[in-house]
From TrEMBL:
Positions with a binding annotation for Mn(2+): 195, 214, 251
Residues that coordinate or bind ATP: 195, 214, 230-238, 279, 317, 436-437, 442
Protein name: Phosphoenolpyruvate carboxykinase (ATP)
Family designation: Belongs to the phosphoenolpyruvate carboxykinase (ATP) family.
Any one GO MF annotation of this record: kinase activity
Statement: the UniProt record of this protein carries the keyword Protein transport: no
NCBIfam families: pckA, PRK09344.1-2, PRK09344.1-3, PRK09344.1-4
Gene coding for it: pckA
Species: Paradevosia tibetensis
Annotated keywords: ATP-binding, Cytoplasm, Decarboxylase, Gluconeogenesis, Kinase, Lyase, Manganese, Metal-binding, Nucleotide-binding, Pyruvate, Transferase
């Protein structure tokens, strides 16, 4: 960690602020938020808020200070740069904006493993933002002076000046990796606070031999740890919330030589079309006192959230502490993973529902970070849109993806963990023709992988993607395991498969000469005749 002394910055904020409320409890923060008109209570006591024009992250407004520590290490293709002088000017102006105001501060921690923990102090203008980050980070036992490793100044009312500060717009998320200072201005979307912590962790962790991961994790009855990587809409949160397994965390983790630890102390779950039947644990969490609901419309009569109403945004969210859930690993740590699962929702309908990956294939698919989103229905367009996000979380990866890929390869080799590609997307055709693989089949395949059942059965090599696919799984139609057989028009399958292979290859070109991994990926020459 950087050697910057955060006490001086803390002292200056304390001296200049009108007043600062430190480490208010959940009831106090809810009460103060309501008095300030920041939000409203649902019938169940959750705090419902809106975030204005920013209903999601602003990745193009994220900056890292380019200095001696970062100039040769940061993945600059993925983030913009500020000079140290520009950041200092930005910080001075943000501090001037905060001077004389009532602020809320929370002393928190990131990292359930105390040997890899960062102490984080967040200063913010609003009680609900303080409650949000209190829900999501770890709430340590506080005694004596809090020695912060990270200071986050969150001032949504502050607007950057592009000409003066070198920013793109009035919105800014700026990270000084050398001093571990974060400045957020011009956006009320609370997810920026959470993800700034992850970005700092992603920068520093590899230097300590820790693999930072955008994934969920849980533990089985026998103590076996499993990891779930996946982009939005692939089922990462749904599948890791399993009543038969203890949840370690749903989003951000570190993998050390000794095991896995959660970076956070809470969950930030998407709630669009949330169903009590499909996701009962998350549904119940939205009905808990102190949960923060973002951009959800409430029924004017019942004061309950309308999960199908996306008039404000599809990116509706719920932020709640882990202990809100019924089945969690309260320590936030797990042993060395036995199973690693990469989730994808293939809307082209050509990937097998499950396949075992070799170590090289695992790194290839980790660097690819593939899923396919359903296109909009305007003018009848239903062509799937491929999405590739390196390491299943490119916007938060401060270093080049190959750094994390090399660490993953080391961890997989040392652990002997089995790695699976689990497709929760379409079968029998692409979106608009086929149908989504049913959740019961997906859970059956996942449980077979987690239990070791699939390790004992025969496999076939998929002729297009070169993946080892189980030949038979009890309770699953054999046809589902061979996507081409589920299509009414096999030639149409071949065309769709070849298109996806081409997209994989084109995306992987940006990683340069990684010949052994390129061979591990799908190749057009393998496509079915």
């Amino acid at each position: 960690m950087a050697a910057f002394d955060h006490r001086a910055l803390r002292g200056r904020i304390l001296a200049d602020a009108g007043d600062i409320s430190f480490n208010d409890s959940t009831p106090v923060l809810v009460s103060r938020s309501l008095r300030a008109g920041e939000g409203e209570l649902t019938a169940d006591g959750a705090l419902s808020v809106t975030t204005g024009i920013h209903t999601g992250r602003s990745p193009k407004d994220k900056f890292i200070v380019r200095d001696a520590l970062t100039t040769d290490t940061v993945w600059w293709d993925n983030t913009a740069a500020l000079s140290p002088a520009q950041f200092d000017l930005l910080l001075e102006d943000a501090l001037a904006h905060a001077a004389g105001k009532s602020l809320f501060a929370q002393d928190l921690a990131a990292g359930a493993d105390e040997t890899h923990r960062m102490n984080v102090t967040v200063f913010t203008e609003h009680a609900w933002h303080a409650l949000f980050i209190r829900n999501l980070l770890i709430r340590p036992e506080l005694s004596g002076e809090f020695a912060a490793d990270v200071t986050i100044l969150h001032v949504p009312g502050f607007k950057a000046d592009p000409q003066r500060h070198g920013t793109r717009t009035e919105t800014v998320i700026a990270l000084d990796m050398s001093r571990n200072i974060v400045l957020i201005g011009g956006t009320y979307y609370a997810g920026e606070i959470k993800k700034s912590v992850f970005s700092l962790f992603n920068f520093h962790a590899p230097r300590q031999g820790t693999l930072p991961m955008h994934c969920s994790a849980n533990i089985g009855e026998s103590g076996d740890t499993a990891l779930f990587f996946g982009l939005s809409g692939t089922g990462k949160t749904t599948l890791s919330n399993d009543p038969e397994r203890l949840l370690i965390g749903d989003d951000e983790h570190g993998w050390t030589a000794g095991g896995v630890f959660n970076l956070e102390g809470g969950c930030y779950a998407k709630t669009v079309k949330l169903s009590e039947t499909a996701e009962p644990e998350i549904y119940q969490a939205t009905r808990s006192f102190g949960t923060v609901l973002e951009n959800l419309v409430l029924d004017p009569k019942t004061r309950l959230p309308l999960f199908d109403d996306i008039s404000l945004t599809e990116n509706t969210r719920a932020a709640y502490p882990l202990e809100t859930l019924p089945v969690v690993s309260l320590g936030g740590v797990g042993g060395t993973p036995r199973t690693v699962v990469f989730l994808t929702a293939d809307a082209f309908g050509v990937l097998p529902p499950i396949a075992r990956l070799t170590p090289d294939q695992a790194v290839y698919h980790f660097l690819s970070g593939y899923t396919a989103k359903v296109a909009g229905t305007e003018r009848g367009v239903t062509e799937p849109q491929a999405t590739f996000s390196a390491c299943f979380g490119a916007p938060f990866m401060s270093l080049h993806p190959t750094v994390y890929g090399a660490l993953l390869a080391e961890r997989l080799k040392a652990s002997g963990a089995s790695t699976w590609l689990l497709n929760t997307g379409w079968t029998g055709g692409g979106y608009g023709v086929g149908k989504r693989i049913d959740i019961a089949s997906t859970r059956r395949l996942l449980n077979a992988a987690l239990s070791g059942e699939l390790d004992r059965g025969p496999t076939r090599i998929d002729p297009v993607f070169g993946l080892a696919v189980p030949a038979h799984v009890q309770g699953i139609d054999d046809k589902l395991l061979e996507p081409r057989r589920t299509w009414a028009d096999p030639i149409a399958y071949d065309r769709a498969a070849e298109k996806l292979v081409g997209l994989f290859q084109k995306n992987f070109e940006k990683f340069g000469a990684l010949d052994h991994l390129t061979v591990a990926g799908p190749r057009l020459a393998q496509a079915a005749e």
